[in-house]
TrEMBL record:
Residues 3-122 form the Gfo/Idh/MocA-like oxidoreductase N-terminal domain. InterPro entries: Gfo/Idh/MocA-like_OxRdtase_N, Gfo/Idh/MocA_Oxidoreductase, GFO_IDH_MocA-like_dom, NAD(P)-bd_dom_sf. Transmembrane segments: none annotated. It holds the Pfam family GFO_IDH_MocA. It comes from the Bacteria. Residues 133-248 form the GFO/IDH/MocA-like oxidoreductase domain. This is Gfo/Idh/MocA family oxidoreductase.
Length: 324
């Protein structure tokens, strides 16, 4: 059976997902939806047989879709998931789930009443190296973890506005929070310090913090620190998450996993494309009803969102915040 898929959002990441879907067996991109017909038609023209729409309800009324990809900015989720849940349509939604926790919690309630298959774009979970890290950590006692997301400010306008993206920790560093939860368990408490140092002097209308550091206490008793910045020039940066255990250091980054113990260092490079694996797991679930291959569903992603939103609250109040 050929699955008919719709894509909402017409930006960079819609194309990334769309191109993977266009290559997948037994899938047709039937519709695209954007903020204007021009943008929607432009994306639709990339995929044979796709039609453009400028309203989600028009798209869903016109096409019998088997699944929808939501690739929209964090502030633009209003009503989208609700509409899909009401119609019983499975969806893959890009992270983060929103700019706060209230909206995602309401959607989670709707999903509990009317379940549909969901997947959330925490793609690091689909890297072979992340699975390897998770397996290795099962046999070790984690003392602490340190993670960094150090880069430049993305060019899109919504990212630099607090009400548009939620800020770097909610929008970007959420990937590390999610990976930390995936391989090391739940987070119970956070304490955060954020500051605006540089980018608001370089660009108009920047309201997000450009440096931040968050201390996290895990249910296991381990502690972690995740720090981020977007002050760096383009093409300079580092992203990674390292674990310190009684057996040594496990240093993960998107390209490799390095294990250092007993004076020996072993590196495993990881070149697999996690977005392809993420889409394969989602499509399999839509086809068969077997969602066991989906590594981040909506309910799980809400827990990651709870941590990143607690960090924002802590950065404002100056107090440690309990997550659950
Ligand atoms: N998992 C990953 O690795 C990864 C990478 C990049 C982006 N993302 C996520 O994907 C999402 C989109 O990012 P992007 O880089 O494509 O952004 P973008 O700015 O390039 O594109 C966003 C698109 O959404 C459209 N849009 C805005 N409001 C809309 C609405 N109400 N209805 C329909 N379309 C609307 C905009 O017109 C634009 O075309 C973000 O949440 C981002 O965090 C995830």
């Amino acid at each position: 059976m050929t699955l008919k898929v719709g894509i909402v959002g017409t930006g960079w990441f819609s194309k990334v997902h769309g191109d993977i879907l266009a290559e997948a067996e037994g899938v047709r991109i039937a519709a695209t939806c954007g903020t204007s017909m021009e943008k929607a038609n432009s994306l639709a023209s990339r995929y044979s047989g796709a039609r453009g729409f400028d309203r989600l309800t028009d798209m869903l009324d016109s096409e019998q879709l088997d699944a929808v990809y939501l690739c929209i900015p964090p502030m633009a989720h209003e009503g989208m998931e609700t509409e899909l849940i009401a119609r019983g349509i499975p969806f893959l939604v890009e992270k983060p789930l929103g700019v706060d926790l209230d909206g995602p919690n309401k959607i989670l309630e709707q999903l509990r009443r009317n379940p549909v298959i969901t997947s959330v774009g925490y793609h690091f979970r689909y890297k072979q190296s992340a699975l390897q890290l998770k397996e290795l950590l099962k046999g070790q006692k984690i003392g602490m973890a340190l993670g960094t997301w150090m880069g430049s400010m993305p060019g899109v306008g919504w990212w630099r506005k607090q009400e548009g993206s939620g800020g770097q920790f909610i929008e970007q560093t959420t990937h590390l929070v999610d990976l930390l939860r995936y391989v090391a368990g739940e987070v119970e408490e956070v304490y955060a310090a954020y500051a605006n140092r540089i980018v608001h002097e370089q660009h108009e209308g920047v309201t997000v913090s450009d440096v931040g550091t968050v201390t996290l206490k895990l249910s296991s008793g381990a502690i972690a620190n995740l720090s981020n910045t977007c002050v760096l020039p383009d093409a300079v940066g580092e992203v990674g998450l390292s674990f310190y255990t009684e057996q040594g250091i496990l240093a993960w980054d998107p390209d490799q996993l390095e294990i250092k113990n007993n004076g020996v260092s072993t590196s495993y490079s990881s070149t697999d494309n996690p977005y392809v694996a993420e889409t394969a797991a989602f499509l399999h679930a839509v086809r068969t009803g077997d969602a066991s291959g989906i590594r981040s569903d909506y309910a799980d992603a809400v827990r990651t969102q709870a941590v990143t939103c607690a960090a924002l609250e802590s950065s404002i109040t100056g107090q440690a915040v309990r997550v659950f």
